[in-house]
Each structure stands twice: as structure tokens, then as C-alpha cells.
Specification:
With 174 residues, this protein is mostly helical. It contains five helices and no strands. Helices cover 80% and strands 0% of the residues.
């Protein structure tokens, strides 16, 4: 089914259309209209660049404002130091207690007591965030930390006493 295109046009079945006399002038005016429409797009090009620069500046400002942290007061800095010191001591004493203790039931019992103190501690810290300069809240937070640390120390001393009694009772007399 291959056809030669030239052969199709040799037949006079297709009428040849003649272009109107004003065709050239119409074509040139349309070309001029296209050229003038291209010139109109240039101001939009500069507006796009200006809008993208403004967008980048806005994003930079938004990023900067979300990442800036509020400055802490001297009281908050001092309290964080005390809090970190107590938490380090509590963790150190707890790990020493777990090493010394042989009774898993005892460990679980005191772990639950510490969890209760920890939930109280979290409640007090939320109060501290609401009222950062309230001395009563700060004192109750420090008291909670002191009670937790003292509880662990008391437990550790009790276990040491029990271990000393076991070793003294196990002496063999010959």
C-alpha cells in the first residue's frame, strides 16, 4: 500500500486554492503581533525573579525565627545545673543498687516507687514551665529529686547491712 505522494497531487481531483491578495499583509501583521506579545512578557520575567528573591528571604526569616531559642534567666541556668547534678547522682546510685541487690522482687518494688516519684517530677516540671519564676515550684522540684536520691541511698545501705550480716553468719568454726 505504498503510494507516491507526488502521484496523488498529479490528479486534478484536489482543487488548487489560490491565496487572497492581502495574504502577505495579513501574515506580516500577525508576525508583528507575535513580536509585540513577546516584548510584553519581559516585565513578568523580572517580576518572577523579584518574587523568588522575596520568597527566599521570607523562608530564611521564618527559618531563623523558628530556630532562635529564648534566652534563659540566671535562675533557670542555676536550676538546670542543680537538676543535672541530682539526676546524675540518682542514676549512679541506682546502677550501684542494681549491682549490689540480689533480689529481683526488691528491685522491682523500688523501681515502681521511683517511677511514682518520676511522674510527680514530670508534673512539677510542667508547672515550672508555666510559672518559671515561682520559688515554691522550684523548691518542690528539688525536694522531689532529693527524696529520690535519698530513697536509693537508704535502699543501698540496707542491702549492704544485709550482705554484711550474711557474711558474718556464714563463718565456719573449725
Amino acid at each position: 500500500m505504498e503510494h507516491d505522494i507526488r502521484g496523488l497531487f498529479k490528479n486534478k481531483e484536489y482543487p488548487i486554492k489560490k491565496l487572497p491578495k492581502e495574504h502577505r499583509k495579513d501574515f506580516i501583521t500577525k508576525l508583528d503581533g507575535v513580536k509585540s506579545s513577546k516584548n510584553k512578557k519581559r516585565p513578568y520575567y523580572f517580576l518572577k525573579i523579584a518574587a523568588s528573591i522575596l520568597f527566599l528571604l521570607f523562608c530564611g526569616y521564618f527559618y531563623q525565627s523558628t530556630n532562635s531559642k529564648p534566652e534563659k534567666t540566671a535562675l533557670e541556668i542555676q536550676f538546670e545545673g542543680i537538676e543535672n547534678e541530682y539526676l546524675v547522682n540518682i542514676n549512679k546510685e541506682w546502677s550501684a543498687f542494681v549491682e549490689v541487690a540480689n533480689d529481683t522482687l526488691l528491685i522491682r518494688k523500688y523501681k515502681e516507687k521511683l517511677k511514682e516519684s518520676d511522674t510527680d517530677y514530670k508534673k512539677i516540671t510542667t508547672q515550672l514551665k508555666e510559672l518559671p519564676n515561682n520559688i515554691n515550684v522550684l523548691e518542690s522540684l528539688i525536694d522531689n529529686l532529693q527524696r529520690r536520691l535519698q530513697l536509693i541511698k537508704d535502699i543501698k545501705e540496707h542491702i549492704n547491712e544485709l550482705n554484711q550480716k550474711k557474711t558474718s553468719n556464714e563463718t565456719i568454726y573449725i
